[in-house]
Amino acid sequence: MGEDSATGQHPRGGLAAADRRQALTAMLAAEPHRLRRRSISLGVRPDDADDAAQIAAMRAWRSIDALEATDPGAMCSWLDVIARRTAIDLHRRTPPTDGEVECDRLLAAQDVEREVETQARLAAALRSIRALAPELREPLLMSAVDGLSSGEIADRLGISAAAARQRVSRARKALAGHPVAARKSSASRRPAD
Questions:
Q1: In this predicted structure, what is the pLDDT of residue 2?
Q2: How far is CA 18 from its chain centroid?
């Protein structure tokens, strides 16, 4: 299926690839260190962060057809998924620096159980975040993941800074009522064994 030459859009109503690429290029040019910072926040060593950022940018460029909207919130979320997958791939390829110590730690049943519980909690938390209304989810991710201020979130979403703060606060309150958060707070109130 090609693009409609009159509208520059795909027949199914999506954005033209050229428009997506232009939006991606503009975002990366406006914040050239975004992917590097995000890689470091995901646990990539600072020495490898430039490589991770380049790989993530190439993956984004190659998968531009998967981008459904070019508004800043949608693009940030899309780029974050790509950066996370890139960081995971790099972690899988890089052997731990403390080889035997790492193996001993993983063999401990207590650590394995904790890891399984952590993965289950993370999956539940991600489901809760995905279940949030987009007008709450996007500001929350911009604040918590990208570290943007209320003013920066407001600029990107075209709302006031007060509205941005309110949306982030409402999203956090909605997540605080999630069963995983409630279970964690009740567990912290239990006396130690």
A1: 46
A2: 24
